[in-house]
């Protein structure tokens, strides 16, 4: 206590020292004293109140402990009295055992008396119930069945209570009610028949379906009651729980599966379109069934059954199983497409699950895929492999068919513009179109793959087409009388090249996305190049045909017969024009090329005839006559090819100018100017060689060996200034050298 006082004094001193640190604070000593006095009084008042409260609490606690002690003593005394009374009543309880047994027996007898009427009338109720079932009055039949079951269950329960181990009496009751179990099974059969045909029944007699559902609901309630009693007593009647609700859904599931599987009416052997027909029947049946389930069936079941969604899941699962079974079969290419189109597109389209009448209950976005992506990929891979083989086969067959047309004795068909053509491009691209349209039904990715495949195979096909066209030409050269319409069909082959080009462009524009075009540019270029080669070789073979007919007339050029007035050039012009009447049926890009090439080859052959030195003019008069004839014939050629090239924009002047330039060299009368004329010729046509000049001077007939040598050597030393637009022509012309026999001669 003294220590506490010391601490209090020290604290007070410290506090006062803090208040009186400056002289001016001494004036406030009285004020400080009053403030501290008030604080002291306040603390003392609170302390007194707290102590008083603690004292009141202690007083109350002591009072309650005293009362609790008295209560414990009273309870102890009561327990002593109860124990005394219990010990005194033990003998009395043992004497009441007979009464207890009598009460149990009375309870059993009371149950028996209560069910006595039903017990004696069991055979009659069984017969009545059987009649009701046969008449289809299922609710009434079930009511009587419930009464019979209730009587049996109550009797068996009382027997179980009295002696649960007495199986003899239990079996006796069970045997007596044995027909009731048969009735239950018969009634169940009728119920399941109605459930199996529920989608039909709900349209014709919805009341019957409602009755079946009510019966199942009754049985479900009885099952729950029996299971609850089993938890309490351990007793459950035989045949319980029946689980008819669970069985009903099992029946519905089996019915749905059977309905899906049973829609296949045909096989591949009996109908090539068996799968399309099968899938269409499935689509129609499933859509009709779900619409009925939504509009009618849903109203016949309690909401907690959620019958529509359960049926939807059943149909989805059954369809998934069936689609997987179909996918596992050895399907052909068109069947794979039909299956994938149905699975990936039709199923969720407005024609089926996406039908507006099924929404909002059916959300197509929440439906799982009918078959896994792995199976889809396997089917697509198989389809592409099969399609590749099919396209190769189709192209080969189309080409073989076209080749058979080439040897016909009738001209090929012409299009609306009069151009010869065969059916090959139409057949090929119709096939491509069909496969692309089919692929587009599945997805864009497959469509692109099929397009790439078609163009890839087209590239290979064009190589075979080129080879076959070459063989066609070679066979014709063995016997020019066969085939009869060789020219016309070769024209058709050339025109087909242009048709192929246009069709490829059209196909890409229609089925290929713009961003994918770069990936096919090289392939397209390759195909265009191959087609140009085929067309060029075709044009060349036709011109070969022309010049084989012209050969006898070309051989007359620059001969004595020619100089004396042969009409060889006239015949050449007529023959060329006659051929070009057929060539008019060649499409424009190649027709123009054909005309230019024919013009060039005629001029080349004419110049070659000059260079062959078949004639050597004896004097100026012959040279003049020959030169004028050459100029005249050049004009004939110019007129002919201007006529043939009408509207094509071809320059028909330049080539014939070469003949006229050569004629001027031959026509020259002053030998001293010969070098100048020849140099002019060389400057215009720089590809002319020394042997060409020598041959030309030989044809003139007045140039000595020394003059020829001098002119050639001088020209070799002179500068050459070729025309940049000039296309070399003399390089194709070979000048024959003098043979030994000719020298001897």
UniProtKB/TrEMBL annotation:
Its main location: other. Keywords: Acetylation, Cell projection, Cytoplasm, Exocytosis, Golgi apparatus, Protein transport, Transport. GO terms for cellular component: exocyst; Golgi apparatus; growth cone; membrane; midbody; perinuclear region of cytoplasm. InterPro entries: EXOC3/Sec6 (IPR010326), EXOC3/Sec6_C (IPR042532). It comes from Athene cunicularia (Burrowing owl). The keyword Hydrolase does not apply. The keyword Methyltransferase does not apply. Belongs to the SEC6 family. The exocyst complex is composed of EXOC1, EXOC2, EXOC3, EXOC4, EXOC5, EXOC6, EXOC7 and EXOC8. Interacts with EXOC3L1. Interacts with BIRC6/bruce. Interacts with MYRIP. Interacts with SLC6A9. It comes from the Eukaryota. Transmembrane segments: none annotated. This is Exocyst complex component 3. GO terms for molecular function: SNARE binding.
């Amino acid at each position: 206590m003294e220590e506490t006082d010391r601490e209090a004094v020290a604290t007070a001193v410290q506090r006062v020292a803090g208040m009186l640190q400056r002289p001016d604070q001494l004036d406030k000593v009285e004020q400080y004293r009053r403030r501290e006095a008030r604080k002291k009084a306040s603390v003392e008042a609170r302390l007194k109140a707290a102590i008083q409260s603690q004292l009141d609490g202690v007083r109350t606690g002591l009072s309650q402990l005293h009362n609790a002690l008295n209560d414990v003593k009273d309870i102890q005394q009561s327990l002593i009295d109860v124990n005394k009374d219990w010990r005194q009543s033990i003998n009395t309880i043992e004497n009441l055992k007979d009464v207890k047994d009598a009460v149990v027996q009375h309870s059993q007898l009371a149950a028996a008396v209560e069910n006595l009427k039903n017990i004696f009338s069991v055979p009659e109720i069984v017969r009545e119930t059987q009649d009701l079932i046969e008449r289809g009055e299922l609710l009434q039949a079930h009511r009587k069945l419930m009464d019979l079951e209730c009587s049996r269950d109550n009797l068996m329960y009382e027997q179980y209570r009295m002696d649960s181990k007495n199986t003899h009496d239990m079996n006796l009751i069970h045997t007596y009610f044995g027909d009731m179990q048969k009735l239950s099974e018969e009634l169940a059969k009728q119920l399941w028949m109605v459930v199996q045909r529920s989608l039909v029944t709900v349209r014709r007699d919805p009341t019957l379906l409602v009755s079946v559902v009510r019966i199942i609901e009754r049985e479900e309630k009885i099952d729950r009651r029996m299971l609850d009693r089993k938890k309490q007593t351990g007793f459950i009647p035989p045949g319980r729980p029946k689980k008819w609700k669970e069985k009903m859904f099992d029946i519905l599931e089996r019915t749905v599966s059977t309905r899906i599987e049973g829609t296949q009416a045909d096989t591949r052997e009996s109908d090539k379109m068996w799968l399309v027909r099968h899938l269409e029947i499935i689509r129609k049946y499933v859509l009709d069934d779900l619409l009925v389930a939504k509009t009618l069936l849903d109203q016949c079941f309690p909401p907690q059954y959620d019958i529509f969604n359960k049926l939807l899941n059943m149909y989805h699962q059954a369809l998934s199983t069936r689609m997987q079974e179909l996918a596992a079969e050895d399907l052909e290419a068109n069947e794979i497409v039909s299956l994938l189109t149905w699975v990936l597109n039709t199923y969720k389209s407005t024609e089926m699950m996406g039908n507006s009448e099924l929404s909002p209950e059916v959300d197509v976005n929440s439906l799982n895929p009918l078959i896994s992506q792995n199976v889809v990929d396997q089917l697509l891979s198989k389809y592409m492999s099969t399609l590749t083989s099919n396209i190769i086969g189709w192209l080969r067959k189309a080409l073989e068919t076209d080749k058979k047309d080439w040897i016909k004795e009738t001209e090929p068909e012409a299009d609306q513009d009069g151009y010869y053509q065969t059916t090959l491009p139409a057949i090929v691209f119709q096939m491509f179109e069909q496969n692309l349209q089919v692929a587009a039904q599945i997805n864009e990715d497959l469509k692109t793959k099929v397009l790439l495949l078609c163009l890839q195979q087209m590239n290979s096909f064009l190589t075979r087409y080129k080879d076959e066209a070459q063989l066609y030409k070679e066979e014709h050269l063995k016997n020019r009388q066969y085939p009869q319409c060789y020219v016309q069909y070769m024209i058709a082959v050339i025109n087909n090249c242009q048709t192929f080009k246009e069709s490829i462009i059209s196909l890409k524009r229609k089925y290929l996305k713009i961003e994918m075009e770069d990936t096919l540019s090289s392939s397209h270029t390759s195909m265009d190049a191959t087609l140009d080669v085929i067309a060029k070789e075709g044009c060349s073979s036709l011109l070969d045909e022309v010049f084989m007919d012209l050969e006898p007339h070309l051989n007359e050029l620059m001969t004595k017969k020619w100089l004396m007035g042969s009409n060889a050039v006239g015949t050449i012009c007529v023959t060329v024009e006659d051929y070009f009447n057929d060539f008019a049926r060649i499409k424009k890009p190649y027709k123009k090329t054909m005309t230019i090439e024919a013009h060039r080859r005629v001029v080349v052959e004419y110049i070659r005839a000059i260079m062959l030195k078949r004639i050597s003019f004896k004097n100026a008069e012959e040279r003049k006559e020959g030169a004028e004839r050459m100029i005249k014939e050049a004009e004939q050629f110019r007129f002919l090819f201007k006529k043939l090239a009408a509207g094509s924009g071809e320059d028909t002047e330049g080539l014939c100018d070469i003949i006229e330039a050569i004629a001027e060299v031959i026509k020259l009368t002053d030998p001293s100017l010969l070098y100048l004329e020849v140099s002019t010729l060389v400057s215009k046509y720089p590809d002319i060689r020394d042997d060409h000049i020598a041959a030309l001077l030989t044809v003139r007939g007045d140039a000595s060996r020394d003059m020829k040598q001098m002119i050639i050597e001088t020209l070799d030393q002179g500068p050459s200034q070729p025309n940049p637009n000039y296309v070399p022509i003399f390089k194709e012309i070979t000048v024959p050298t003098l043979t030994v026999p000719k020298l001897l001669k």
